[in-house]
Write a structure and sequence with these properties.
Mean pLDDT: 81
Structural class: mainly alpha
Helix content: over 70%
Number of strands: 0
Shape: globular
Largest sheet: none
Order of helices and strands: HHHHHH
Number of helices: 6
Length: about 130
Amino acid sequence: MKIFSALTIAAAVAFASELAARYLLRMIPGSVIGIILMTALLYAKVVKYNAISEVSGFFLDNIVFFLIPVVVSSAQLSRYAGGFAFKIIILIFAGTIIVMVITGISAQLLTKLFYRDKKQKTGADV
């Protein structure tokens, strides 16, 4: 039952974020809105980490299977892009690196901010 409720929470957040992306915030992808929404729900303790940890762990452990359609689509890129396929692959690679770097820096800053607040409240070295 715990897995079903965690999947329900994840699906509700994904559905709400897609609705928000479609009708309210057209310039922001639904997945980004979903990440922000889930983070806000976890930070506000509306959703407990223990409630979704097993399902989120499953998705992270099996993320390769979710990326297979993207890889297969990219393999057929030369058919549609012609002579621009190499440039598109370079752009995809560079974009991925940029996203990874920005995500890493953001995660570090948020972690420092979170632990700084926690350290100030407890007065202990974390």
